[in-house]
Amino acid sequence: MRIAMMVIRLIWKVPYYLLGIWWCGKSSKISFEESFQFVKKVTKSANHAGRVTIETHGLENIPKEDGFIFFPNHQGMFDVLVFLDSCPRPFSFVAKKEVSNIILLKQVIKALGAYAMDREDIKQSMRVINAMTEDVKNGKNFLIFPEGTRSRNGNELLEFKGGSFKSATKAKCPIVPCALIDSFRPFDENSIKPVTVKVIYMPPIYYEEYKNMKTVEIAAEVKSRIEKTIEQYL
């Protein structure tokens, strides 16, 4: 219902937004930063039309230098929109293959140079991890969901997969844990009532802190920090 309301309230802008995002992904004259700002503009308009407020905390924790990875908990399809709305720094993301052909998401993935990962195909997943690693080394920021799939349990977390952190360990980049609260509500609840989603950008974990840890240990540590933060902000 909320998605329908977003479309209806922005019906006269939808063609312009779709064409603009498509052009961002097609034209070599448009920079990544320009593409991100346009997608961000569309996201903010959609969230406003959908009566969704993003309450943001901890922006000061985002590393000053580019080449870092956000690792948030995963609650639903709205999650990426939370970051596109709230994050002032351009970033791309890794999505599961199943959403890569959904209209608008498909165009956004191309516009931001995002990756679609097939978690059932180990070789394809490793190609994505390796490509993402090189992008991060070259100063591009990313977002990946270490649970691999949405929890479907509200603000409770699933286990974090160690493999999700391989790009960080290979790139030796800052890991930025992020806590999402009530991000499942906009799209998973059959309602159009105003809703507030919280996102907390937590202090980064730098390479010197995790270099001697196994990826499964990093995953457990990041999950623990996010769970404590969610408990604090609920």
Descriptive tags:
234 residues, alpha/beta, Glycerol-3-phosphate (1)-acyltransferase, 7 strands, globular
Would you kindly provide a written description of the structure presented here, covering whatever features stand out?
The chain has 234 residues and is of the alpha/beta class. The protein has one domain (2-233): Glycerol-3-phosphate (1)-acyltransferase. Helix content is 44%, strand content 15%. It has a seven-stranded mixed sheet with strand order 1-7-6-2-5-3-4, with helices on both faces. Helix 5 (105-111) links the parallel strand 3 (92-96) and strand 4 (115-117). The longest helix is centred in the last third of the chain and has 19 residues, at 215-233. 37% of the residues are buried. The model has no long low-confidence stretch (mean pLDDT 94).
At a glance:
The protein is an alpha/beta fold and 234 residues long.
Structural class given helices, strands, pairing? alpha/beta
Q: Please write the CATH class name.
A: Alpha Beta
CATH architectural arrangement: 3-Layer(aba) Sandwich
Radius of gyration: 17 Å
Q: Number of folding domains? A: 1
The CATH topology annotation reads as Glycerol-3-phosphate (1)-acyltransferase
Query: What general form does the structure show?
Result: globular
Share of helical residues: 40-55%
User: What is the number of E strands?
Assistant: 7
The CATH H-level superfamily is Glycerol-3-phosphate (1)-acyltransferase
Strand % is 5-15%
Biggest pleated-sheet summary: 7 strands, mixed
Straight-line N-to-C gap: 26 Å
Order of helices and strands: HHHEEHEHEHEHEHEHH
Mean pLDDT: 94
Which runs of at least 5 residues are low in confidence (pLDDT < 50)? none
For the biggest β-sheet, the strand order reads 1-7-6-2-5-3-4
Count of helix runs: 10
